[in-house]
Amino acid sequence: xxxxxxRDLNLSVTTSKQTAHILKDVSFELEAGxxxxxxxxxxxxxxxxxxxxxxxxxxxxxxSGSIGFDGVELVxxxxxxxxxxxxxxxxxxxxxxxxxxxxxxxxxxxxxxxLRHHQKVSKREALTKAIKILGRTRVPHPEEAVKxxxxxxxxxxxxxxxxxxxxxxxxxxxxxxxxxxxxDVTVQAGILRLLRELxxxxxxxxxxxxxxxxxxxxxxxxxxxxxxxxxxxxxxxxAVITAPQHEYTRSLIESxxxxxx
Amino acid sequence: xxxxxxxxxxxxxxxPTAGAPLLSLDSVxxxxxxxxxxxxxxxxxVSLQLGRSEVLGxxxxxxxxxxxLAKLICGLERPAGGSITFDGNPVRALGLKKRAQxxxxxxxxxxxxxASLNPRRRIRDQLEDALALNPDGSWTVDSLLDAVDLPSDxxxxxxxxxxxxxxxxxxxxxxxxxxxxxxxxxxxxxxLDAFLQARIARMxxxxxxxxGASMIFIxxxxxxxxxxxxxxxxxxxxxxxxxxxxDQIWDDPQHPYTKKLLxxxxxxxxxGIIPGSS
Lengths: 261, 278
What we know:
Shape of chain A: globular
Largest sheet of chain A: 6 strands, mixed
Oligomer: heterodimer
Shape of chain B: globular
Mean pLDDT of chain B: 86
Distance between the termini of chain A: 36 Å
CATH class of chain A: Alpha Beta
Number of helices of chain B: 10
Strand content of chain B: 15-25%
Number of domains of chain A: 1
CATH topology of the domain at 52-76 and 98-105 and 180-263 in chain B: Rossmann fold
CATH architecture of chain A: 3-Layer(aba) Sandwich
CATH class of the domain at 52-76 and 98-105 and 180-263 in chain B: Alpha Beta
Strand order of the largest sheet of chain B: 6-7-8-3-9-10
Structural class of chain B: alpha/beta
Mean pLDDT of chain A: 90
Number of strands of chain A: 10
Helix content of chain A: 25-40%
Low-confidence stretches of chain A: none
Distance between the termini of chain B: 51 Å
Order of helices and strands of chain A: EEEHEEHEHHHHHEHEHEEHH
Radius of gyration of chain B: 19 Å
Largest sheet of chain B: 6 strands, mixed
Low-confidence stretches of chain B: 1-17
Helix content of chain B: 25-40%
């Protein structure tokens, strides 16, 4: 069942001088329990697609088309209503865990902030839940971790905390924007395994934005390839990687170092 | 510092010959002071040689000491032991001094081009500064921009008007302008997307080799290093655990840590297998 249905999404940003069309007629679906990978070079609009779902498009942006979420239309939704969904049903994990956290607030405070805002639970209940969720994403010693500060963790552990923060309100949709780009390969494998697990166990609809075909090949179920704001190809993982139909997809895969062609 | 005294006496009776390595590290160590009095040995007894017109890849995980090693080679960090010799001259720590003339042959390309270029000076001025270090060189601002595939009207622009990949190419051009004999790239491609990474890495290799320089290319990405390096050194927790020709590292890794690194690279085969899980 499709959780998010994007239809003919257009995004243009007007700055003082000119109008840039960031997304042109983008259409694809996110399904519960499946990871949809969006690939493309820098500036292809893959991150903006994710931000549009969250209602975080930049100032001066004009959205048209449709993003259906569970029967609700997200395009043109008033900010106040979007605020009630974001962090609860729609959540996000960002690229650089070191800058995604506030350096002077404890981890426990940061990952329960939105839980307490949205669900009106007491501070103690929130912390208990945080400890449970941190255990779920396999952060070592969750009881102590909630009292620590971001600089006391490594990048991989912080990314696990970011995932904990993203799933603490039981979301339906998770947008992961380059979640492993800032990490080493050995740590990356662990985070990918976590993402796969969370997706399967919690029946999340995951949008995985990445430029790394190796990552897509490991965890994505379907792959969408974007170029300059246009979807050039989409399909099942194995088909897209082993038998790309579009010239651009082929060039991306061939440009990878050590690609066996 | 005793280490520097040792280094200078060692070099006094050692004249550069054609067969000698261009850059040689002899059991180099580096320590950082920790808050609360302890010391952390970031680089521990590293010995490496870099030949002429050779590309050496240096790989390892975050925190293994790769960048500290790069800083030691450039004299940006003071070694706690051992010696570094470049073309017969000992590499001294810079401190607040100007760099010695004979060490200008070591040039560095840093990880983050957003921070390594001066935002308030035009590209032309920044390249001319580097050209002034090497007045005998054949490069000009225009030929440098051409070599890194940037339009010649880039010269009068400022760094903010370039993308990450373009900025990194400017940083490469600036390092080349000084006529380096050793180009040190400290994760020069880490902030770029995968498709640009391979392209910039190959560009660095070609430019370095064509201008007769050697290169030390630091990366945590083994697959890029495989593409461009002649030899690869694998570093773990401050030590070099394996050095071998690139093909040998790739096809027949000896050290368990090298095997672990290789096994963690996700394969682009569309099979949906997460590396490390069987």
